[in-house]
Design a protein that fits this description.
Elements (H helix, E strand, L loop, with lengths): L2 E7 L2 E7 L8 E4 L2 E4 L4 H8 L5 E6 L2 H9 L3 E12 L3 E7 L2 E3 L2 E3 L6 H13 L5 E14 L5 E12 L13 E7 L5 H5 L3 H17 L1
Parallel strand pairs: 1-10, 2-5, 4-5, 6-11
Antiparallel strand pairs: 1-2, 3-4, 6-7, 6-9, 7-8, 7-12, 10-11
Length: about 210
Amino acid sequence: METSHTVFFNNRKILFLSEPAKDTDHKKIQPGCIISTVVSRSVFMKFIGSDDQTLVFAGDDASLLFRQFARLFLFAEAAGGLVAGPGDKWLFIYRNDRWDLPKGHIEKGEIPEEAAIREAEEECGIKGLEITGDLPHTHHVYPYDENQWVLKRTHWFMMKTDSLTTSPQFSEGITRAEWKHPDHLSGVLQNTYGSIRELLLTCQMQRNQNQ
């Protein structure tokens, strides 16, 4: 069984698996989970309107299923970063009553690395950022209007800075920009988006492996 992509809607997951399903109609395979061999807007909207936490599209080619899914949406790209600073701390922003990482849309003519640095500098009021590595990108969906949804891919990068001075961008609804030690992120993980939680857990695991 192979998972090609994971798409988040808040804390709910949409998975694409290379595993042939027995039936052609979507159904629950376990509590809180729906499976479908057909990618369609009607299946997606039924999932959104339900209480189920996971939607699984299963078939012979998980990547093909994801491409079929992506064609149902407007597509947008963003970039952001996990900033490491002195004292082995990571930088977080607090926006819309949730912890998040600095990120934003890639502007015309920008490459993802440039956009990630610009957004982190603007949203956190920091300078002298340097990209030190790539992180897994994430996908999430959100409603654009009554009839259209957006699928956004966010490119993530590991960054570093020598300064702990921050200034949150209040005009963008960011009320706090705070440094936290990666060993003490329980409060962040309990109050963030599913895509951010998964990214942070991956970064924590990589950090522990490198120690």
